[in-house]
Amino acid sequence: MTKQKQSKTDIELLYDPNVFTFSIEVTARLLGVQRQTLHGQFRNHGEIMKGVPVIKIGKRQMVQANALRAALGITLQSNT
Question: Does the model's pTM come out above 0.90?
Answer without folding.
Answer: no
